[in-house]
Amino acid sequence: MKILDIYIKWNNNKQSIQIPILPESFEIEGTNNNTTVTVHGLGDINLKGKRGLYSLSFESFFPKYALYCQRGSHHDPYTYYVKKLKALYENNTTVHVIITETDINGYFTVESFDYGHDDNPFKLTYSGKKLEDKVMETVYDSPSFEGSVSMGRSPGYEVGENSTALGLKVAATGYASHAEGVGSKAAGEYSHAEGDNSKAEAHSAHAEGTGCKAGGVASHAEGSSCTASGIASHAEGTSCTASGNRSHAEGNVCKATGEHSHAEGDNTVAAGECSHVQGRYNVEDTDNKYAHIVGGGTWVDRKNIHTVDWDGNRSLKTRSL
Question: Is the pTM value of this prediction over 0.70?
Answer without folding.
Answer: no
